[in-house]
Amino acid sequence: MGDTTEISWTDSTFNPVIGCQHVSPGCDHCYAEAQNAFRQWTRGWGPHGERRRTSTAAWRKPLQWNADAPRFQREHGRRRRVFCASLADVFDNQWLPEWRADLFATIRATPALDWQLLTKRPQNIARMLPPDWGTGYPNVWLGTTTEAEPYYRQRWPVLAAVPANVRFVSYEPAIGALGPLDLGDGRVPDWLIDGGESGGHARIKMPDWSRSARDQCAEQGVAYFLKQHGTYASNPLVLERGVSVREAMTIDPPANGKGGALLDGRLWRDFPYDSCSGATSTRRLLGG
To answer: Where are the chain's structural domains?
Structure first.
């Protein structure tokens, strides 16, 4: 929970609830689970885990950010992006329905924020949306995590069928090739986040997986954001050019992301068009 965050594709994080459970191999080394183990609160994980609502003070944060929107807009030239539930999943079956109702009430009360709701459970979205969802709240971006092609094929079509202002895919941790973005029906995400796994047990992300995703995004008008390689063992400078990790850290420093984030000599940091941003000429709104 914080006014600022190290997550490069958002500005702030809001956790209305803490706790989740593993649903696929991308969850094997869950950072949220590890963080809570470090805090010595581990009861929130697993199918019978205790999901814990956060404090009243924490729930006030989005209202404060919304009130601060004019200053944020002046300083950054855009709206504040809020990643909701970095330590949970908004569409987890274990949430009490009133928690989700309170969350959507908070989202309605903060129209100056762009909310990024990311789930590994897109099959739950449609039945858990509020009655007034309609074609989507203008300030909500709906996303799903797809760590490799089988999960993209499973989850993206479900999300694609849900009305939303922006739909995005978080390809992280990337543990296999993503495969084709267009599964044959012409529907592709508005935004693709690409990120390798970090930590002591990180699995290797191959640079060509990212190149394939990036090139498809360019061809199909999808905003592409390469967050990080995750570890220098996955960095193209090390994997493909034989550069030492120490030298790679100089060329592509950790400030770019864990394990660096350069691909073919540059950062790829595009954001999607959204109707609240004021952008009207293209599908993509560039800038960090």
So the answer is: 12-286
